[in-house]
Amino acid sequence: MCFNTMHFAAPQNIKYHITEKKMSNTDFISYSFIFILGLVIGSFLNVCIYRIPRDESIVFPPSRCPKCGRKLSMLENMPLFSYILQRGKCKGCQGSIAVRYPIVELLTGVSFVWLFSMLGPSAVFAKYSVMMCILLAVSFIDLEHKIIPDEIVVFSIGAGILLNIIARDVTLLSALIGFFSASGILLLMAIITKGAMGGGDIKLMAAMGIFIGNGPILLALFIGFMIGGLVSLILLIFKIKGRKDYIPFGPFLAAGVLISGLFFDEILIWYLM
């Protein structure tokens, strides 16, 4: 099969800032700020991850210990460092704080720095940072509760449309087709298998199709299936999961969306070579 011309909608503004120069003081300050910003937003993501599946407000009441209900002080609300200083325990009831809290905060901070190193201070960086936050929240909620909340899906659709207009890296047509393409495949699978594919996964891929466009979302679906299949096989081999056990698919789809969204062009060129 010969490919003469192929046109897929992929992020066109992604530029990899690879340099041999040593990091300047300005660079250090910028990366430090981005990392701290990521930690703070990661702390907010923890609130979303805990409260949204429980149908609680993410604004009120203020942060509190989930075990004793005590309102947390400003020091206790410090992302990552408060967990370390308190040795993973509440200062009031001495109950253990879930390790998910520092993991989410650290992942968000590191992810922001990683994206910033590739995309620089740009609208595309802002767009992919928001997408990263959505994917992190979805992954941890799905792992714990085995659901992908509609509230996050609706927010994702609105955010994707707005950020596409600002970043101008995905065309309107590609976003529109992307909304239906991968989600349509999952919907068809759900119908054929009588519910083996969750509705949350279908809606997530529809929203992410707006974010990254038609070509990348189809590749994201393929990558998600590949990663999910490999991980499931490993879990079965080591008898961590049984053949009839439910394995959340959201995190695998999230990984596929991130990989395809950022590296679609590179993967396509590698495949066609």
Automatic annotation (TrEMBL):
E.C. numbers: 2.1.1.-, 3.4.23.43
Transmembrane stretches, start-end: 28-50, 148-166, 172-192, 204-237, 249-272
Cellular-component GO terms for this entry: plasma membrane
GO biological process, one term: methylation
First-listed, main subcellular location of the protein, grouped into a coarse class: membrane
Domain Prepilin peptidase A24 N-terminal: 36-116
A Pfam family per the record: A24_N_bact
Location relative to the cell: Cell membrane
Gene Ontology MF annotations: aspartic-type endopeptidase activity; methyltransferase activity
Keywords: Cell membrane, Hydrolase, Membrane, Methyltransferase, Transferase, Transmembrane, Transmembrane helix
Membrane topology: Multi-pass membrane protein
Domain of life of the source: Bacteria
Domain Prepilin type IV endopeptidase peptidase: residue ranges: 130-232
InterPro entries documented for this protein: Prepilin_IV_endopep_pep, Prepilin_pept_A24_N, Prepilin_peptidase/N-MTase
Alphabetized PANTHER family for the sequence: PREPILIN LEADER PEPTIDASE_N-METHYLTRANSFERASE-RELATED, TYPE 4 PREPILIN-LIKE PROTEINS LEADER PEPTIDE-PROCESSING ENZYME
Similarity comment: family membership: Belongs to the peptidase A24 family.
Protein name in the entry: Type 4 prepilin-like proteins leader peptide-processing enzyme
Natural source organism: Peptoclostridium acidaminophilum DSM 3953
Taxonomic lineage of the native organism: Bacteria, Bacillati, Bacillota, Clostridia, Peptostreptococcales
Gene that encodes it: tapD
